[in-house]
Each structure stands twice: as C-alpha cells, then as structure tokens.
Amino acid sequence: MKIVDVNVTRFKKKTWLGVDKDGHMHPSKEKISQTALIEIVTDDGFVGRYFTADNYLTPSARYDENTLTNLCSGSYIPAGTGDSLRDAIRKVRPVLIGEDPFCRERIYRKLFRMQRLGGSVPILDEIIGIIDCALWDLAGRYANLPVYKLLGGHRARIPAYGSIMAGDNYQSGLATPEDYGEYAKHLKERGYQGIKLHTWMEENWSDCVISGKPAVERDIEACRAVREAVGEEMPLFIDAFHDYNRFEALKLGRELEKLRFEWIEEPMDEYNMEDYKWLARELDIPVIGPETAKGKSQTRLQWILNGACDICRAGVMDVGGITQLMKTIHMCEIFGIPVELHSPGAATLHTMAAMMIPGRYYERGLLHPFLDYDVTPPWFNTPVDYMDEDGFVHVSDRAGLGYDINWDYIKDNRCD
Amino acid sequence: MKIVDVNVTRFKKKTWLGVDKDGHMHPSKEKISQTALIEIVTDDGFVGRYFTADNYLTPSARYDENTLTNLCSGSYIPAGTGDSLRDAIRKVRPVLIGEDPFCRERIYRKLFRMQRLGGSVPILDEIIGIIDCALWDLAGRYANLPVYKLLGGHRARIPAYGSIMAGDNYQSGLATPEDYGEYAKHLKERGYQGIKLHTWMEENWSDCVISGKPAVERDIEACRAVREAVGEEMPLFIDAFHDYNRFEALKLGRELEKLRFEWIEEPMDEYNMEDYKWLARELDIPVIGPETAKGKSQTRLQWILNGACDICRAGVMDVGGITQLMKTIHMCEIFGIPVELHSPGAATLHTMAAMMIPGRYYERGLLHPFLDYDVTPPWFNTPVDYMDEDGFVHVSDRAGLGYDINWDYIKDNRCD
What we know:
- The structure is a homodimer.
- Chain A is of the alpha/beta class.
- In chain A, about 35% of the residues lie in helices and about 20% in strands.
- Chain A has 13 helices and 14 strands.
- In chain A, strands 5, 6, 7, 8, 9, 10, 11, 12 and 14 form a nine-stranded mixed beta sheet that branches. Chain A has a three-stranded antiparallel beta sheet with strand order 1-2-3.
- The longest helix of chain A has 20 residues, at about 125-145.
- The model of chain A has no long low-confidence stretch (mean pLDDT about 90).
- The interface of A and B includes residues 102, 142, 335 and 355 of A.
C-alpha cells in the first residue's frame, strides 16, 4: 500500500474561546474559528485521519455573554489550523507520497531529518505529530482495530481529572480563590477523580485583563479554597506555569505539601533544568515535568537522569506523535518513573489505554465555569472522550482513533 | 475477541545437533528430536502461532557422520519444547483464557506478576516471550499485516552476519584456527556481510570432547586466521563466552582492536557488571552486552547507565517477547545506544525491521561446516529468514510472523 495524497480540510466552527499572548485559553464572546482535518490517502482507498486540536478546544458556552466585560478578543486558532498548516503539509507531502503508510518509523526518520534546519517547514514539530497520529488511525482502520489494541491494550477506561483554565477576572469566572473553590465543588459533583488548577498570570499582558500579578500567596489561597471545597480525599494538582523563581516555587510547594496536593507542575521556566534539579531535591511533593521544554524524548531522559522530575510529563504533540510518545512511555516504564500525559484527545486516550505503568490520569479540559465541556462538537456524532458519572473516560472500540464523524457538518462548513 | 484455548503441538524432526552441558550446540549424529508449535485460539477463530526455537536450530547435515568420532550425544531440546513446556502452558492457560488477545500489556503484566516466586511455572521467562510472540502473530493475522508493519516498519531487508558455532575437536570442523579461517572464507562467498566467532570452551566438560582449555592465545589465533581469510573489509565479531577474568578479557580485546574487530561479546561472566564497567572503560573496541544476565530491560538500563556496555544486547526470549524487546529498543534509541539483537528467527526479524536506530545486523545461524543452514525445515514451505546472495535477510510480508507452514509434515509427525 502506498500513500497517494495528503489532504487538509478546514471547516468553520463556533467558538467561545479566546487566547492570551502566552497561548492560554479563556472564555470569549461567541465567534467563528476553524478546525482542520488532515487525511492521508492511500492507493487502496484507506484513509488515516487526524483533527487538529482533536476535540479538546470545543466546549460550548453556557453563560450570557452580555453580562460580561473584558472578554478575550483573540480567537483561538490551534497550531496547525491556520494557513501555516497548509504550507507545512504542502512541504512534507513529497516526503510522504509513495511511502508505505505502515512504515511509520521510516517516515518519522525522514521528517525528523528535516527538523535540523527546519526544512523551511513551519510548525514542523506539530506536523510530525499530526502525520504520525493520522498514520496510526489509518493502520487501525485497515486492521479493524482501535489504536490502543494495535499498541497492546492495558485498560479500556481511565480515571480523569478536571483541568481548570488559567485564572481571569470574570465575575463568577475564575477571578478569586473562592471562584476556584466553587467550581471545584461542581467538578467533584460531575464525577471527576481529581482536579488541577492553572492559576493567574501577569497583569495586563494580553487582551484578557487579568487582575493581579501572579503571586505565590494568591495561588496558595486558591489551592486552599479548592481543598476546603472538595474535602481531604480528592486528588489535587497544580500547574503554576513558569513564572516563579526557585524560592517562590519552593514556598508554593511547601504549602501544597500541607494541602496534600499530588504534584506541582511547571512553576518555573523549563529551559533551566538546574532549577528543577534543585526544586525536586528540596520538595517532598512530586515535581512533574517537562512539558514545554523542547527536545522531545531526549530532554525527558535528561530530566530523569538528573532527578529534575519525580514524575515525567509528555504529550502526543510534545514528543512527535503516538509513536514517539510510546517510546517515551516505554523508557519511563523501564526506569520505573511514572509519566502523566499532557492534554486530552483521542490520540492521548489510546496511548493511555496501552500504557502498562502509570500514567494514572487522563487530563480532561480545559474547563471553566462558563463553558460546557460535555457537549459533543458538531463535527462528531459521539464525543471522543466520553466520561461516565464515576469520572472514568472510555476509550472507543471503533477502528483507528475512533472518530465518529458528522460529515454533513464538515461539508456544510468547509472553508476552502 | 476472547482467548478460548492455548494449545501445544509437539512434532518430531530429524536433527544433527547435540548440546553440551552449558547449552552450546554442536553437530551430532542424526537423531530424532522435537519442536513445538504453540497456538493461541480465539472465539472468532483467529489463531496466533509461535514455534519454539523458531527456525534457527534446524540446519541439515552435509557430512558423512561415519567418518566422525566424538560426536555430541545429547539431543538439543530447546527450552520450552519438552514436557516442561506442556506443564508451563497448563499453568498459564487460566491467566489467558477469556482475555482479549490484543491486550498484550495487560496479559504481560499478569504473567510477569507470577514471576516473583515463579508461580510454580517452569521456564516462565521463556513462556512469557512465547505467549507474547504468538499474540503478535495473532494480531498480524487479524489485521492482515506482517508484524513489523504493526510495529511501524523501517526496512524490509537486513544485513546478516554468519554466527559460527562454538569450537569443537571434529576433524575439518571447528577444531583449529585454520578451520575457522577456511569456514569464514566459505561464509564470505555465501554472501554474509559479517562473521562472528564463538570460540572454544573447557576441556572434557561435556559429552562433546573439546580439545584444549579456552585460552586467549588460541582465540586470538582463530580471530587472526579469520581476518586473514576474509580480508580487511569484512566486519568481524567475537562472542568469547564468559570464562575469562578481567585481564584475560582485556588482553583479548586489545588484540581484537589490532585485528579491527567490531565488538567483543561476553568474555566474562555477566553477573558481575563491575567487570564490564572496567572492561568497557579500558577498551576501545565496543563491548556488547548483556545477553545472559537476568533482569530483562532493567538490567540493560543499568548496564547503559553504568557504562558497562558500548552496544546493548537483547533478544526476544531474553527480555520477555517482542513487546518487551521493543521497549528495550525504544529506550536504547532515546539514549542513542545501538542495540544488536540476540539470535535469529521470525520474531527477531520483524522486530529488527521495525527498529529505527541500529540494530545493524541480523544474527544468522548458528553455522558449522558440517551443517547446511539454507535448507528449509520440513515443517515450513518457505524459510523464515531467507538470505539473498548479497547477505540481506528479507522479512516476510505475509500476515503475522509470516510462517509458511507445511501442515502435512506436522500432522504426520505429531508426538501426542
């Protein structure tokens, strides 16, 4: 079987998400954005598909936006959805055409080589991951097996934690520690088996006016409010971004130990591994990382070897697709180091279902009091990451990545 | 799909192989031995198969045995072929029945847990590998894909080296350095892209009377004879077993450096990693290992972390099947450490075809001047590891592990 084409279909969608300068999402007024479907087509008629941003950026609004001020104006266009995606696919297409779609290792190696100088391909890092995921979908469709069973299944349902958006200044949004506490109570009722906070970023640094600089004290207040709201038993985590210095991070970590949080994530810039070696040595609470540091699996190996993390962190799009993520997971398994996956979506879910060693939780979200994450996006007939009342997300047993696509919606909303 | 049965079919075969006390093979008088076929059967009628000892112990004789004396009398019965195999399968069967055959990770984990105290299962280590290989064969048959494409293919042909048996005292066999030189010339003509020597073991330590204790000087003579016979360009390797002390191993290694050998393998007992740390530090020639040390992937991680090997070594049956071998390979890939696979066979071949980072060579053999390795065993219609004139072994594109079985032969030669 040979690859004969690689297509990009972009289609419109309503969104209630805006993005700040650093890439964090917040609720916004309703507007039109777009999502892209990548299709790898073979001479035998088999097709592998991947949706950029999978399904995790598609909550529906459940608030009256007229009552709100200061909403984000920037529309969130995930990496690989805009014109850069078409550019990039045009440039990698010649590498793919004629290749055996099952030879993912050979294809990865060819694409990886282009990375040295970028090969004039924008967002090549993401493209490698997108291509790999689409190839896994194709293999699953051909084999009539869900991807997690191609990988060697371990479990069909995974406990989910609710991953709350970064703080904002929306009234009854995420403006105060009390807001976090209230919302956490709601998430517990929904069934989530854990809750993660993203806290506040710098003041006035984007269209989203966020009140108050990031401050350890304020983070601690939010964490305390959440702990008090959900009781002693609920697993809690924090992603404190990367703004703090060592001593602030240590101070935050010490308080989180008292509040019995299960990990601390990215409190400092990840480019300086030395900071994390220091922090992981000082703290009892597990330090998890790296998430945003470049260098894929090799960077994760260095963090493990240097004791810069207690739990490893990796995501499908962080390390180059499902194939490379599984390699990272296998390495962590041999080290005996847990690895918690970054961001939700079908590819993440299938990978988690094939992990023998934790990875304990599926990160579901991002969530916000103004948004309803449990609404199925209109281009799917069934959700990618359905979560039951007990907080378990179920991996689909449909072939490939399990997308149940509403083709009418896509046809009616095509951009090109 | 559920597993409903696990069958063992043992069948007779002619063999010209005997085994010494340490498990090394030598040519013997013709006798009857047996091979076993393990079958995992599902409710949907799909079957996964694995042949113990795969195909690598099945050369044909091409000598007049009446002219020979001192032939090995012990018939080689590979691990998992005798009664212990039926015992073991009987004991693991309840773990497998009812399981989804695609959930290899979950099945491995269950079997692995039995290992702690052995679970009263003989040869459990091998059984885990055998079950895993049969499950991969089943997945490939179901998906209508060769296993290496399920794993993510990288290449369809692999350079092979000829792996020569341990020395003996058969006239015109492997009794002298000159014998090795002569035979190496023959292997070069056959097309092999490299040659590996196994040299002599202790005197009178088995039914096979081997003349002369193992000695560094004699090993060097054999290596020199081979280098002179095949010229400067042929890649050469040695597996010197594990009899030497540090200083003997160093002496051997230094001479091999002069003879431009590409690696030195297991010159000392592998249970003492400290010896290997010392040797790898001292020598320029790459030290490869571990092969026989217990502890699967984790032991290999320790060898890498401690600099006890320059090239990692692992085999399908050494680390627990294709699944675990791929994990080891993935770890080595992230470390940037080459990994050369131990022993031939269909499972090895499919794994190698899916490795992105070397693993450069397929180990073909074991070979001996008295034996013809290129004869297809009678229970196959086509060989598992066909090698072309240029010394490339081709991985089968048939579904699963690619066995092309002669069912008539098996039916006619069943033991039970």
